[in-house]
Amino acid sequence: METVETDVLVVGSGPAGAATALALSTYGVPNVMVTRYGGLADTPRAHITNQRTMEVLRDLGVEDQVTALATPQPLMGNTVFCTSLAGEELGRLRSWGNDPLVQAGHELASPSRMCDMPQHLMEPVLVNAAVSRGTALRFHTEYLSHEQSDDAVTALVEDRLRGDTYRVRARYLVGADGGRSRVVENAGLPTVGRMGVAGSLNIVFEADLTRLTAHRPSTLYWVLAPGATVGGIGAGLVRCVRPWTEWMVVWGYDLDAGPPDLTEEFARSVVHRLLGDDTIPVRITSTSAWTVNHLYAETYADRRVLCAGDAVHRHPPSNGLGSNTSIQDAYNLAWKLRLVLDGTAAPALLDTYSAERAPVGRQTVERANRSIGETAPVFEALDLLSTSDPEQMWRNVDARKDATPEGAKQRQRLREAIAAKVYEFNAHGVEMNQRYVSDAVVSDGTPDPGFDRDPELHHQPTTHPGAKLPHAWVVRGRERLSTLDLGGHGRFTLFTGIGGGCWEEAAAAVRQQLGVELATVSIGPGQEYEDPYGDWARLREIGDCGALLTRPDNHIGFRHAEASPQARALLLGALRKILGHG
């Protein structure tokens, strides 16, 4: 039987697999990516792409390609609640960073802007870049099983075109094969929760809805109508794929009754029901049934098998966290694989992958499912759950217009219920506040600073070890760069400033002693980089002569407040710990 050999086998070409392959190839790690399918995603599926993911894509060199294809942030944010697109509007919520108060937080938090990038456009960007940098991609290749030894993992795969099987022998296997992951099953990873919480339908279609949507641009239009609470994701949804002609409807079904027969006639009837205008020409392009899941893995690895993406966190699309969490899993894992494979780090470094990413996956699953439940108060405010009679439902909706005390109370309840959906549509902290705790983070003895405001809604930058490096604009001559641009690039970076010469000398010595790629950055007046706005001085939480060590994923691995005569020993000890050498 034929055996293909590589350093890393990536199973799956979705956001997690494609991003893993891209990062590995960017770092020069040989890898093979296999997918059982004959092509990439052909439906929009995941789409919200948040700031942290855009920062990852920026570091991997594809941010501009994504931005060129995506719907920009200003066209995403008028989340509408209505009886149908052509019917009555019940209220709007400024979303996805478009609320003026929230927008300021987005501007301060990152050099990148969130956008709407449908999965069928995102995957080709990631995969094409990965292949161009060295990934060997095999379509029509289905993973069947794997066996592990002390120094390798051997997977059995089937060529679905030829009908034969062969082996792929790799030093590590990354299971990124989605919500029905065979890799996770074969690896025996423990999971919490269950699949199939509710039934849902996706109907992708083309229609010119400019007159119904362009004046209130959004990526999501929520329809509160009879039947909207059956299964699904809390309400009927009309989602913009491409303004204002490509769309997707999400509608629920009763799991006990099973999915309906997805004929074109049925699909068109659902679309027209949510549009509220049967005269609009509609062309159905695809239909599919799926289930809402509530499941996460407690650990992401079994020796040489490491899993990522929907394979280890399965949840509804609420909050738009799915592909974001998946790409960020890949970013966390790839640099660790590279350093272990080239001998710079001990295999123990890979243990920190689960320690750091599993809590994020759990939070994602819990937050997305909680968001579904937070839609119910909108229905309750309109008194839509007290009856199953459609005519009575519409009378209850109309009651909000009454010039009565009851009508005033209903209007207030509706405003409050819609405003509470901020936890789904403006959860900036959920997107940006990851603070890792693992052996790849060296404590400086200070307590975690916690959060001054709601940590789900608001991003709070900090240089506390484990947190993401704060963004600040600095300059080099006429060039403006983010502090995030100075880190990353697959290497460690030591940040210091005026008086931090001891740290720069320590970095040079440690770089040579450990053979690790370690850049140095000095920020301050007369240094290579200057801080004209004073933003970095406010954010760094150390003195001019202190030091911050960022890992290749731009998370803080080590911090020291001031200069030190023991700088070399401190930095050496920190890097050895991060690299798993004790």
Task: Report the major sheet.
Answer: 8 strands, mixed
Rg is 25 Å
Compute the average pLDDT: 97
Assign an overall shape: globular
- Give the strand content: 15-25%
What is the number of beta strands? Answer: 25
Low-confidence stretches: none
- Give the helix/strand class: alpha+beta
Structure description:
By secondary structure, this protein is an alpha+beta fold. The chain contains 19 helices and 25 strands. The protein is about 35% helix and about 25% strand. Strands 1, 2, 8, 9, 10, 11, 17 and 18 form an eight-stranded mixed beta sheet that branches. Helix 1 (about 15-25) packs parallel to helix 5 (about 120-130). It starts with a strand and ends with a helix.
Question: What is this structure, in a nutshell?
Answer:
The longest helix is centred in the middle third of the chain and has 23 residues, at 351-373. 33% of the residues lie in helices and 25% in strands. It is globular and about 80 Å long.
What would the keywords be for this entry?
582 residues, 8-stranded mixed beta sheet, alpha+beta, 19 helices
